[in-house]
Amino acid sequence: MEMIGGVGVEGIYFYWLFWLFWIISTFFMNRHIKRLKISLYLLIAIILSLNSIVLLDFEISMTTVFVLLVTYAVIAKQTTGRRLYVIFTSFIVMISYATFLLFELYDPVWVIFNRSWMLAALLVYLVIIMHQYIEQRLITLVAGAIHGDILYGFLLRKFSFSYPIGSMQFLDVLALSLAFLLIISGFKFVSVFFEQYFSQQEGEKQKQS
After folding, report:
1. From CA 15, how far away is CA 12, in angstroms rounded?
2. 3-state secondary structure of 58
3. Which of 50, 55, 61, 199 lies deepest, with the highest CB count within 10 Å?
């Protein structure tokens, strides 16, 4: 567990960022049924974070179960082609996530920076190179990360190690990944807006001349 001044800080990224997401969706998004759903989902995820269930002898957090079910529902609404591609790319993210944790377990020396930030950066990089649209990036990241944590738990079970699936450490990584992805998408939106704005201004100048 990470410590700051002797106080455990697992889950601090999750709580801070999910509360921030909730504030943004509740007070700054356009009034729409989609805004209500996002705000409700975020609030439920926060409320369930301290609860867990035992499933097939694995302890799994209720927040992880809830987020995974919501992700399945979103994937089911995709067209067949997009659904298959999301499943395929989620599998890649899952393998990458589990591989990172296995390397960290057997040789932690190479994790030279904060492991949550490194893992989040890896996940975001993967979904960005595999998907163009933000919705597909988000659901691929979430589905791949959760299944990667499940896979890692199964691998550790074979060696008689107990591993809580969807722990606060995992939720920290998930929250950081979503934040990085939204920030990058925001920068892209702003850059496209200014590019179109300056192109329009340049076109008007040429017409006037």
Report:
1. 5
2. strand
3. 61
Following DSSP, what letter does each residue of 110-121 receive, concatenated?
G--S-HHHHHHH
Contacts of 128 (CB under 8 A, 6+ apart): 137, 181, 184
Q: How far apart are CA 69 and CA 16, in angstroms?
A: 23
Report pLDDT digits (tens) over 12-57.
899 999 999 999 888 877 777 778 888 999 999 999 988 989 888 8
What average pLDDT does this structure show over 67-96?
94
Q: How many CA atoms lie within 13 A of 69 on its CB side?
A: 9
- What six digits make up the tokens of 70? 């919501």
First to last CA, the chain: 66
Phi-psi region of 9 (alpha: psi -120 to 50; beta: other; left: phi over 0): alpha
> What CA–CA distance (Å, rounded) separates 140 from 61?
20
**130, 92 Cβ separation under 8 angstroms:** yes
Alpha carbon of 20 to those of 74, 93, 178: distances in Å?
22, 26, 12
Residue ranges of E strands in the chain: 3-4, 7-8, 52-55, 58-61
Distance CA 85, CA 88 (A): 5
